[in-house]
């Protein structure tokens, strides 16, 4: 199946804004893949699919996770914004029959990051931050950094994520902290 067919599959699952965002992430991922020497088609694919379960109501997300055997830790249970990434990867595998671990992992970890991120993980995580539809203050700085170094931009994005979460007083997933610590140690 190619990217056009996957676009057709996600269209009814997503609202207009989220569909547009997914197309933008797909384009940003393709560009990053070209720059950093990853498979462009795969990056485009993971990008278009990364938020596939984002617009499903939270109670339905929980139900589907139960159905697909996705179990949640205490932190995950109290962080509904993380569910679409975990569920998304399970859906791609179980319903769409996608088996490529690079694609599945990039979707699974696009919100938290993790220790030992693959090149594709980093590309999708960063594409999600700098896609053309993003307008938050600071996005221009991240776009500039992404052109200079994937390591540098990952470190800055994770610091930004952790800072925002701490400001809001919400739990921080261990994978987010592990990703941040690993980046920090590499920067020293
Ligand atoms: O799905 P998107 O909006 O495109 O972006 P995303 O999947 O990166 O989700 C971003 C949201 O996820 C943002 O509101 C912060 C939240 N998030 C990221 N890491 C963590 C987290 N929330 C909690 N509670 N803990 C985390 O570690
Ligand atoms: Fe997401
Ligand atoms: Fe993100
Ligand atoms: Fe996204």
Automatic annotation (TrEMBL):
- List the catalysed reactions: P(1),P(4)-bis(5'-adenosyl) tetraphosphate + H2O = 2 ADP + 2 H(+)
What the entry lists under SMART domains is as follows: HDc
Presence of keyword Hydrolase: yes
Q: Which Gene3D superfamilies match?
A: Hypothetical protein af1432
Which positions are tagged coiled coil?
none
Which keywords does this chain's UniProt record carry?
Hydrolase, Iron, Metal-binding, Nucleotide-binding
Pfam families according to UniProt: HD
According to the UniProt entry, its GO molecular function terms are: bis(5'-nucleosyl)-tetraphosphatase (symmetrical) activity; metal ion binding; nucleotide binding
Q: Which PROSITE patterns match?
A: HD (PS51831)
- PANTHER family for the chain: BIS(5'-NUCLEOSYL)-TETRAPHOSPHATASE, SYMMETRICAL (PTHR35795:SF1), SLR1885 PROTEIN (PTHR35795)
Looking at the record, the residues that make up the HD domain are 18-133
What EC number is given for this enzyme? 3.6.1.41
Q: What is this protein called?
A: bis(5'-nucleosyl)-tetraphosphatase (symmetrical)
